Amino acid sequence: MEICNGFDFNIFNESIEDEFPRVKPAEITVLWDQVLGKGGFCSVHEVSAVNCHLTDDEVSSEDQSTKNAFGFQNKQYMNEHYKRDGHTRYAIKKLSNSNYEQGDEHFVHGIIDLALETRLLAVLRHKHIIKMRAIADVSDASSPDYFIMMDRLSETLSSRIVQTWKKENNKLFAKKKKKIEHLVTRIGVALDICSALEFLHDKNIVYRDLKPENIGFDIRDDLKVFDFGLCSELRRKDLVIGSDPATYKLTKECGTFRYMAPEVEMGLPYNQTADVYSFAILVSYICNLELPFSSFNNFQIRNNVHKGKKVRPKINKLYPDRLKKTIRLMWDADLSKRPSMMQVRSALNESWLHLIDDHIGGATNGGILDISNRTELSLRDDADKLETLKSNTPYTEQTLRTMESRSRSGSSTASCDEQMPPVQTVRV
Ligand SMILES: Nc1ncnc2c1ncn2[C@@H]1O[C@H](COP(=O)(O)OP(=O)(O)O)[C@@H](O)[C@H]1O
Ligand SMILES: [Mg+2]
After folding, report:
1. Are 296 and 270 in contact (CB under 8 A)?
2. Is the CB of 211 under 6 A from ligand 1?
3. Which amino acid residue places its CA nearest to atom 20 of ligand 1?
4. Using CA positions, which residue lies closest to atom 25 of ligand 1?
5. Mean pLDDT of residues grouped by 10 in the chain (428 residues)?
6. Distance of CA 212 from the midpoint of ligand 2 (Å)
7. Which of helix, strand or coil describes residue 238?
8. 38: Cβ below 6 Å to ligand 1?
9. What is the pTM of this model?
10. Which residue from 22, 19, 12 is spatially nearest to 68, judged by alpha carbons?
11. Which domains does the chain have, with CATH numbers?
């Protein structure tokens, strides 16, 4: 599979970032005591009100649009629409307060992840990728007040699996048709994730932390992938010369053990197929509704999944053959055997239609699934991610030094999931 397109390009585009509304901490009301979620470094809180000060230029007359030339909501829009049908519309993500107490090193890594996430969310536009709406108007991106404001999600995939799908499935016992109907719904969700990953891979980005805790649903039940702090661009300077398929020297142990591809854990060169592996483990969870490797700790995953017997989750015999075959290829220990996300989408789509035709007998929408909504982004050639961050963000000297040493050392960035303590407590 061809991974590298032969060109180095940089997705970051600070001119687009400049178009985002800047919101001062005092202009929003945040429910600090209600944490919507917490990850390794950040916490996410609901924004209960938006009251941005508007300059004369920012007050639009009635016939003017409340979106700017890039289609971003402006401050006036946010002031007027921070609630929709009685539900709050926005959430902010910021470094957890505990990070400021855990010493500089930890703090700096949190800042870097959030800064990279800001850069990426500013340019990524896809139906199944969370939308950033505003950036904190603070003098220094490493300020404790720094945040990004995004659409608020109603539920994560991990909670959907545990709270809804498992319970539904347990009630169904022998009702095969119903079970298949539910499986069809779940494969539809997997297809949405697939389209987001395909989009990222198309832009030469590897996501690296695919797991149910980083996927959610908005109020309309549209799936959104979020948490882009561990993404990386595949750059020519990291390419392993002569590798076929092309692989890159990238950070070791980046992501979450349960879903982490063996080569990532072992510190070997890798490429976008690391996400394909993670997607396979996630698809098995979505299909089987059993947490993969639930009896293993990280050490056992290393010895039994990544090495040794290369244990994998069970595949239900009743699934369509193409689905079974594709899952086996996706989690192959040999990354060169893994399909591209485009091939995965085609296989999943076919299995989805097959299940509908054979077991449910419903209309299949002419065999076409509208699962992608990509737009062409303005991409800038030949720039370096770190350089971009350095040149455009007001970091302190110390922050920059640590960023540089991290980028040189290629140290690990293990994340954690809800069910398992991480091997590394620090994502660096
Ligand atoms: N836009 C959002 N709306 C509601 N909850 C969210 C949103 N973004 C994240 N969360 C919750 O916060 C948790 C942590 O957010 P995440 O972006 O994954 O942070 P981290 O980078 O620290 O892992 C998520 O697992 C989820 O439960
Ligand atoms: Mg997360």
Report:
1. no
2. no
3. 39
4. 213
5. 39 77 95 91 94 78 63 88 92 84 74 91 95 92 90 97 93 78 93 97 97 96 96 95 97 95 98 98 96 97 97 91 95 98 95 83 42 25 36 46 44 52 30
6. 9
7. helix
8. yes
9. 0.84
10. 19
11. 14-151 (3.30.200.20), 156-413 (1.10.510.10)
